[in-house]
Fold this sequence. Notes:
43% of the residues lie in helices and 18% in strands. It is α/β, with parallel strands linked by helices. It has a five-stranded parallel beta sheet, with helices on both faces. Helix 2 (35-45) runs parallel beside helix 3. The longest helix has 13 residues, at 12-24. The N and C termini lie far apart (28 Å). It binds manganese (II) ion. Residues 10-11, 53, 55-56 line the site of manganese (II) ion.
Amino acid sequence: MNRTVLLIEDNEQNRYLATFLLELSGFTVVSAADGRSGINLAQSLMPDIILLDIQLPTMDGHAVARHLRANDTLSTIPIVAVTSYAMAGDRERCLEAGCNGYIEKPINPDTFIEEISAYLGASSSSPESP
Ligand code: MN
């Protein structure tokens, strides 16, 4: 299985680490440094999953998620927010904006792939209940 991950993340070090871990596990990774180009790439690539940083310049992750969810062809792709926000309310906002879930930043190299895979598994059957 060669799954494609779209990584929308403005921080180069975070992009580097996530890409490294994903490629090591056999994923194809395409990354975008801002929301607008991330949305464009999502439309042209139709990735298996989208990893979305919430703190992005110009258009934040919540806005990006809403745009992706408003698009019929993209609306079923799992979106996982990657967020360093500690407050529960911010995470609820991620889910309200259309994300399927979130993982914590800094990402944990030991569990990152497992966390991502859980969302990929969920995409082929019924959506995970909250
Ligand atoms: Mn960021």
